[in-house]
Design brief:
333 residues; alpha+beta; six-stranded mixed β-sheet; four-stranded antiparallel β-sheet; 11 helices; globular
Length: 333
């Protein structure tokens, strides 16, 4: 028991990118860019090229992670196909196992030949290159929640990401979501790197990443699965603006007319309060409004708003043009 407690303390003591604020990643990023056209046919050689000129483990991991995010495309058609098959076979363990084995071979064949994959492939490549560079990196399987996720279909794990050990502490990252954005209508993929998923704050990460093995939340107290499902929708820009989302802790709310609703966030850096706003949609029109109260204490941002009419409102929180989170409010008399 004592060992387990010490292990958990070690996980929690340092767990985000700011732990390495004294280190510049410019050299690691430039190395990753310099080998942009490298293939995956010789991964030991690729790992050596990416890491041999760097002096710290975090820089070596950064070069690997950045290379993967800039070179491996998200194959959304492959993801949808896997989702359909897993749903079809979810009540037949033998067929599901056979499909998983067959699909795993297909994933890695496509990954190695065309540098296209889904989340499992991203996590595998990050882990494999890391291990070749003598870095301790694991694949974490679980549930990932986005704005397009149907909660009622959350009966099977749907996402994978990585945890990496640096300076005796574990850190979380998601190379799939960091790499870019698939077009849900055309299934085409556009590279668009999001640095917020690199060594992310576990308190923010848990809102849309729920690990099957709870130790990989890296939190002293992991929310249960129902709390995860009930949490607000976070978008990619939340990870570039926030280090913490304190409240509201749920997406859906039933409130009274003129009741004050409080929103509280921990910011990565100071912002202009003029950039803070809500986009509110009642099903007929969308309006942009300012919070009724804004308070910024260092990097802690507190907002308040009152709904003065009954109805049902989708409420989107924005900082400038960045969409951060979505909540719903049913307002009654």
């Amino acid at each position: 028991m004592r060992y387990l407690l010490l292990f958990l303390v070690a996980l929690q003591s340092h767990a985000q990118k700011s732990d390495f604020k004294q280190i510049s990643f410019k050299k690691a990023d430039s190395i990753a860019f310099a080998f942009k056209n490298e293939g995956l046919d010789n991964m030991p050689q690729l790992a050596y090229k990416l890491t041999s000129g760097l002096s710290t483990d975090v820089e070596r991991f950064r070069a690997i992670y950045k290379w993967v995010c800039a070179n491996i495309a998200n194959d959304y058609s492959l993801y949808l196909r896997n989702k359909r098959k897993r749903t079809k076979y979810k009540n037949d363990s033998l067929k599901l196992s056979a499909w998983n084995d067959r699909f795993k071979k297909e994933i890695f064949k496509k990954l190695l030949k065309r540098k296209k994959t889904i989340c499992t492939g991203y996590a595998y490549i990050v882990q494999e290159l890391s291990e070749l560079a003598d870095l301790n990196c694991v694949i974490v399987h679980g549930f990932g929640k986005t704005s397009t996720t149907l909660i009622e279909e959350f009966d099977l794990p749907n996402h994978s990401w990585n945890a990496v050990k640096l300076n005796k502490n574990w850190y979380l990252c998601d190379p799939t979501w960091a790499s870019g954005i698939p077009n849900l209508e055309t299934n085409e993929f556009k590279f668009y790197y999001n640095d917020g998923y690199f060594l992310a704050n576990p308190k923010l990460f848990i809102i849309n990443h729920f690990p099957l093995d709870k130790k990989w939340s890296l939190l002293e107290s992991t929310p249960n699965f129902d709390e995860f499902l009930a949490a607000p929708i976070l978008y990619g820009k939340a990870y570039t603006n926030l280090i913490g989302h304190d409240t509201p802790k749920q997406m859906h709310h039933l409130i009274q007319k003129n009741e004050t609703v409080k929103f509280k966030y921990q910011l990565q850096k100071a912002i202009d309060i003029k950039d803070v706003r809500f986009l509110i949609d009642n099903g007929f029109k969308s309006i942009t409004v300012k919070p009724s109260r804004i308070e910024m204490d260092n990097l802690s941002l507190t907002l308040e708003y009152q709904f003065d009419k009954i109805g049902y409102y989708d409420t989107h929180f924005l900082i400038g043009k960045d969409l951060i989170a979505t909540y719903t409010f049913k307002v009654e008399n």
